[in-house]
Amino acid sequence: MSDEATKGERTRDRIIEAAHRLFIERGYHGTSMRQIAEQAGLALGGIYNHFTGKEDIFVTVMVERNPYLDIVPALEAAQGETAEELVRDAAAGMLAALENRSDDLQLMFIEIVEFKGQHFPQLFESLFPRMIGFAQKLAQVNGDLRPIPPPVLIRAFVGFFFAYFMTEWLMGDQFLSKSQQGAFDNFVDIYLHGILQQ
């Protein structure tokens, strides 16, 4: 790698870091290209050597800094001899990853609100094949899994435990303290068995 390439990569990283911080603090529309340049220590024109504009920077930040980058390894690392043990371990790992990256959830909300989710396919194109590995692992452990297609199984898992995290975050301690006892166990049970009596 040449010195010029290394310098270019360092400059690109500074732009991404500055934009990441600004998008989280100020939102997409509250962040200007001039502010990104100032935070990165560059002249405004220097950004255009690396990115076509603010949307290009945002998409790069979202792809490189989204919380799913920690969720997928948590799913891949999940262990368990039974479906219940595997789901419990994977869900706990996913929730810990979301907790550690909760600021980065704002990037996802910006994508939903400002761009109507148009860049999500680009994000999930690289992540979804790795998530399917968790569904395949789940199908191989002890447990009588219904014949649910792996993409549906993983979508239900991620959506269900993401909803657990979000409702805990949105409702706050005051409401949840009354109903929180055993909530995680109940969510695992509902994911595995549904809500109807067997």
Name some characteristics of this structure.
elongated, mainly alpha, Arc Repressor Mutant, subunit A, 10 helices
How would the blueprint of this fold be written?
Elements: H1 3-26, H2 33-40, H3 44-47, H4 54-65, H5 68-77, H6 83-100, H7 105-115, H8 120-140, H9 150-179, H10 183-193
Helix pairs in contact: 1-2, 1-4, 5-6, 5-8, 6-9, 6-10, 8-9, 9-10
Verbal overview:
The chain is an all-alpha fold. It is built from 10 helices and no strands. Helix 1 crosses helix 4 and helix 6 crosses helix 10. The protein has 2 domains: 59 residues, Homeodomain-like (Arc Repressor Mutant, subunit A, Orthogonal Bundle); 128 residues. The relative contact order is 0.10. 75% of the residues lie in helices and 0% in strands. The mean pLDDT is 88.
Query: What's the total number of strands?
Result: 0
Main beta sheet: none
H-E order? HHHHHHHHHH
Total helix count?
10
- Assign an overall shape: elongated
Determine the structural class based on helices, strands and strand pairing: mainly alpha
Helix content: over 70%
Give a brief description.
By secondary structure, the protein is mostly helical. The protein has helices at 3-26, 33-40, 44-47, 54-65, 68-77, 83-100, 105-115, 120-140, 150-179, 183-193. α8 packs across α9 (150-179).
